[in-house]
Amino acid sequence: MNHESNNILSTSLGAYIADDNNSMTTRDNPATVLNDVELMEKQAHFNRERIPERVVHAKGAGAHGVFTVTNDLTKYCCADFLSCVGKRTEVFARFSTVGGEKGSADTARDPRGFAVKFYTEEGNYDIVGNNTPIFFIRDAIKFPDFIHSQKKNPMNNLTDYDAFWDFLSLTPESVFQVLRLMSDYGTPDGFRFMDGFGTNTFVWYNKKKDYYFVKYTWKSNQGIKNLTRAQAEMLAGKNPDYAVEDLYSAIARKEFPSWTLFVQIMTKQEAEKYKYDIFDVTKVVYEKDFPLIEVGVMELNRAPKSFFTEVEQAAFCPGNIVNGIDLSPDKMLNARAVLYSDAQRYRIGTNFAQLPINSPKNKPHNYQRAGAMQTSLDNEPNYFPNSYNGPQPMPSVMKPMLETMGPIARYGQPVREIDYEQPRYYYEKELTKSEKENLISNIIDHLSRAVKRIQYRQAAVFNKVSKDLGEKVSMGLDLDYSKVEALSLMSDEERAKATQRN
Hints:
By secondary structure, the protein is an alpha+beta fold. The longest helix has 17 residues, at 331-347. Helices cover 30% and strands 15% of the residues. Helix 11 (433-447) packs across helix 13 (467-476). Strands 1, 2, 3, 4, 5, 6, 7, 8, 9 and 10 form a 10-stranded antiparallel beta sheet that branches. It is globular and about 80 Å long.
């Protein structure tokens, strides 16, 4: 009998099931018996159908596609998937909101995750970023606190506007990202009409081991479209899955969304001379200083067949790199490179890389053994070195040496005047009049729900960015501007002390 061709209901181990509508019970005054293994398997599996949702980036969508190289950059990078114009590499991209739970509305005011997995011939390479080129903090040790402040209050499970603005107003390095978040860019019109950024700074190196610092930018070929606050809130109630539906509907219509990947390239000497710290994720590297160089085009042309298998179990990490690419001395990146994979081991399991959505095209060979859901053990030794012709290191893929120096300590990065330059330029020069009006309206609407002392502190931070911004926010919140201005002239420590809860 050809069992595979027979559409017969069975247990997970292949035993045929005679009746799936009635559990085993006694005949009269029925009591279910404990040894109904089919009932137990069905219910036990049901109890475990949800893996822990992502702490951040829980709500999202993903799609398969292909990346095609359009420019020869081999003088900068020896990565095989960039080796020649026209080379095509399969990719899987996932877009998401950051703070909300899995069932939250995907039009909420929030940064958007923008992660791409390249299934290269030399291993998987992940570019894991957001739809903004900057971030709220520049030291990973603050990340749990930042996320806690943006999540619901653990006491009542309600949105906590005080915590949201308390943390941000006490962390002025966040102000550039806060302005982006509170502008219309904080509510993109779905996932197709937004750009993406690697956010961190990475290293590219060529066959000669000459290395360069690079920043990634994905430009949407659909253009940029954002929602107003009113539109986003309306859609959140009408269709909380608006962005997910829009992505999959476009693919179904064969209107395949695409993005062009660009890089900004800097030598070590150029990076050292640049006015802004290129390893500080609260800063941008301006395109006028280091123009965008085209790399290739990503087209997403296939929706997942199983959302859980392919989207929920997709595991990304900026530490997933390949020959020709390395991590820079970027404080946030260094932590992300190890902590993201740790999160996946907890969330999905030790052997998450063996799942089809995460497994590389080239077969891995290593000495890792056992663990839950292990499926790929070979008849090889499980130690190194060995004399049984086991997998050997490949010295030719040694990365170039990056220089570092100085004693190790917990060095602080105090907020200085230079930290307000880029948000000031963004507010005064990059936003149109209507975009400024929307930004101020969004800030007032959101910040008004926090207590007054926090409103004063955050308004003072805005005043340090721009007096015009500080005055308009103060007016909208009915704050005494003279007090706001006085707070803005204080040091961060003085301002925090002056606005503490009594």
